[in-house]
Amino acid sequence: MNPSSDPDLPDLNTYWRLIHQYNEDLDEVHEILREFRELADQYMDRCLIGEVWYELPRWIMYYGQNGDELQLPFNFRLLDLPWDAAAFRRSVDEMEAALPPFGWPNYVLGSHDVDRLASRIGTSQARIAAMLILTLRGTPTLYYGDELGMINGMITPENMQDPQGFRLGLQKTRDTGRTPMQWNSEQFAGFSTVEPWLPVGADYVRRNVVGQDEDPASILNLYRQLLWYRRNTPALCKGTYQPLDVSHEGCFVYAREHAEGSRLIALNFTDQFCAIAVPYNANAEIAISTFLDRTGRVSLSNLSLRPHEGTILEVNS
Question: What's the average model confidence in pLDDT over 59-66?
């Protein structure tokens, strides 16, 4: 038993009462992963992804000594952070500094093990999260429903299905983030023709794919534009990452630089207007705003961001 475990843990929470010295993150697992990778490399276009939750120095080891283990050990570090610009920059900078030359970064903001993104940070900041994860260097992982801004479902003791909830109580169930995808406003949100395993979210009539498809300013169409823009912009697919210092502590600003053209990303993590001086010697035009209503030339010496606004800026000297 773990003598440092919380004495107030529920009786059924056995995981945190134990010391996981012999059943997690063992050194010999890396030999097995190298065998997996050797097999996977015999096939075309295979990618090994691992659900790895450990601290950064141990997590980095899952790439292998020469990039011969996982291509993508899942990076869940952002899930546990407060929604704060400085905290996110610090985590990204630490990741970039720790990666070996062969290591390709990746980022995760949503998971079936945590509350939904929009419930954790608010539906307005969910648009900032979309721009963040689709402009950082590396591979983004999107959790279904985040592209709609889906929020936690309402789970009662009667409809709970998660074994963790049965062990630890309704407040610990993960079912809230696992409710059916909301395709349309019909019964069961178009997910099923019969009552599904978990209840459909209460807001499915107004928050669904069909409805957002028809709204040019919807978060779904923001995701689509960001995905298209990322796919067609070398700076976002292959460019380097460089954080930029700005005076407003609520903003996270960085450059993605590439020989075929660079981009600046400025994200306002707050519900306040802010004006920042971006230390980048170039002319700039807004390519995408998270509100999908703003383009054109701007001044980097006095860049204005509305509450909950993020921008991708095309720059040229």
Answer: 96
